[in-house]
């Protein structure tokens, strides 16, 4: 108790010894399945050791700005980011009602200081000094609303906000939640290019909700603990452009082709499922806020130098012929450190990949055209 640092060092030494033992067993065990399990255990322990080692040091000051913080996604997202110990300053901006949200969230006894900003006149203050900007601003999808209706409203909002980001926090990471993400990310890129500060490593379309849904639905069918599930999701963030790679899911389960097709369809239609369940009175706000907070946390960890942070995101990419594409991305101090290859695809997934390209290409072109009008 007098020297807690000694106890930490002893625990670290024990973990290191444990790793050596596991690696020896993995190398010499005659059982292939046992070796495979040991390798996974070793990798998990290494990652845990690295993260604990990092967390024991001082955590950098990080300002996070949420644009659209008084909305259906913005409010629960503000709450979740207030709970994140990596955030030191939480800036909440919207065109109305932000002071109330900031006062409410600000009473929570966690590290970050919360300030609410309202209206165009306060947007600059909300953004100045931000390390990460999250944009859930815009209107939700409603029954009967066409994609063009949604696009015309949200695209204008995104265009104005990105112009302000370019001016007041040009080096911040930008997490785009506002739909349609397939188009709003290209809009943001064009606005940043015009301002002369575009860095493709710092612009992200948040597709984490597709991953969250794929994990949940897969776990239910595979009858495995959802916390252990990982499913990469590639493509875009709307309808058929969403392509979960269940062939790469872990842990592997022997699911039939029909089940995998149904899981893919449900993942693609997840947003519609929620809109219909809410009887037209809302969209996926709570699960989107959760997914947005997960991805923001990954970005902050990357900025802080935590190793091997990998998430799926819609970014500028060269892994297909399309200029923007969602796939696994390694995050780091500069944002995107590496866009990872797609890996092996099943025949069903290869067909899905080719089928989504025309739709995604059209959405990208639509965003670029709008930004340059």
UniProtKB/TrEMBL annotation:
* Domain Lactate/malate dehydrogenase C-terminal: residue ranges: 207-370
Q: Which reactions appear under catalytic activity for this entry?
A: (S)-malate + NAD(+) = oxaloacetate + NADH + H(+)
Q: Which GO terms describe its biological process?
A: malate metabolic process; tricarboxylic acid cycle
Q: Name one GO molecular function term.
A: L-malate dehydrogenase (NAD+) activity
Q: Which UniProt keywords apply?
A: NAD, Oxidoreductase, Tricarboxylic acid cycle
EC number of the protein: 1.1.1.37
Q: What sequence ranges are listed for the domain Lactate/malate dehydrogenase N-terminal? A: 63-205
The organism sits in which domain of life? Eukaryota
Name any GO cellular component annotation: mitochondrion
User: What InterPro entries does the record tag this protein with?
Assistant: Lactate/malate_DH_C, Lactate/malate_DH_N, Lactate_DH/Glyco_Ohase_4_C, Malate_DH_AS, Malate_DH_type1, NAD(P)-bd_dom_sf
Family (UniProt): Belongs to the LDH/MDH superfamily. MDH type 1 family.
Q: Oligomeric state and partners?
A: Homodimer.
Output this protein's name: Malate dehydrogenase
